[in-house]
Here is the input.
Amino acid sequence: MTHEALHVDLFVVLLMVTATVAMSVKWIKLPYSIALVIVGLLIGVCHLLPPVELTPDLILLIFLPAVLFEASWNIPLRELKEGWLPITVLATLGVVVNTVVVAYGMNYFAGVALGPAFLFGAMIAATDPISVLALFRKLGINSSLTMMLEGESLANDGTAVVLFKLVLAIVLSGASFSAASTVGNFVLVVVGGAAIGAVIGYAASRITSFFDDHLLEITLTTIVAYGSYILAEQLHVSAVLSVVAAGVVIGNYGSRTSMSVETRMAVNSFWEYTAFLVNSLIFLLIGLQVKYNLLCKYSLQIGVGIAVVIVARIIVVYGMTPFLRQHNEKIPWKWRHLLFWGAVRGSICMALALSLPESLPAKEMITITTFGVVLFTLLVPGLTIEPLVKLLGMNLVDPVKEQYKELKARLITKKRAANFLAEQFKTGTVSTACFELLNADLHEQKEALKIQIENLHIEDASVKELEIEEVRHRLAELEKDCLKELTKEGFISEEGRHRIQLNQSEVKEKLPEH
Here is the structure.
């Protein structure tokens, strides 16, 4: 068997393993990603497969752009804007604080030289809470908290990679550290990467308006995902933030203004499958990479690494969140606990560790310590986050409110379907007989849903409170957008806008509870 054929056979076997695990977790209460890591560990221990090398190029050039693009494509820009302050602070200042605390902790308690210690601190700052986010969505955790954790992860992947490369350049060159120069380079690389991605995303969004072909648009989004990454790498700016910015722009602008509903669904399905496949392979390969003799050799460094990573996260979350606000309100304590414990590490950390040059004397120690910390965060916080959610009482879903939300969602989908049908009829795509039949059917379904919602209002007063709160929030967002437009037009000043918003916040606080 040729070398290439062996690779193909191995790839098919890995796909079979991921499919088997995916089917198995339907019956066992275990997060899919964690189950893959455990299966990978068992396969590695029993030597059931030939050795599989997880190279940095495989993660950074093949896997990473796909995962980043899919996540950023699906991020609602409105929610991202609402949580921009905590996300930005945690992903920038938080990464720097995490790096410094971990570096000095490793230096003091494990005797690691400061250069390698700072490298380890920078690479381990990148979070990858895929399993936690999946659990949050399954349990119906507050979407703002989920967005904060996901937004922080996407952003700190970029800032951690940038910081890692800056530290690596200093360590390899032996140059003295200059705070001003390092900060300047850091800002340039971060802003440059985001700007390039935003431009590519906007350009692609404009291009999609000239045709409506789901195969072409899937191809175009693939070019955007990998092209933005490669171009940013060539220009020596943040490739990670370039992909994220491109994904956010085309996902929130291009897909809404230039793609038909059918095309958007096809593109969504493609990226959903791609992310599922890539994430499955990543977590399975993480388990396969573990070398138990080396884990024992560096057990002290791994133990200290786990401890200082936990301490650093405590300092970042509990030290910074009291000064940050979400929706003009303080971040609740329960949210802080989940932000702390949900900061799982993953593939980015491992890719950075594997990318260290062979000339670095501490490469083996850093790589194995990183693997050990990643395994710990995947298995311990990953398996205990659900009990923590239940302990905090954040999974207490009201069945009546849940029923109301489902009915409201069904009503919205029926209304959108009716609008789409009307547009098709106006363009002559649908015949009169077909339109009248389907429109009458949709009208009947909408009226039935309205009656069910009204009955819920009568049966439970809390449904009225929920609806009032939802409508208030939408009205507040509408007023905020209107004020921004008036400011752009020069009708009011920035100071006037801030005074009006402050007054609205004060009025909101005085409103009676229903």
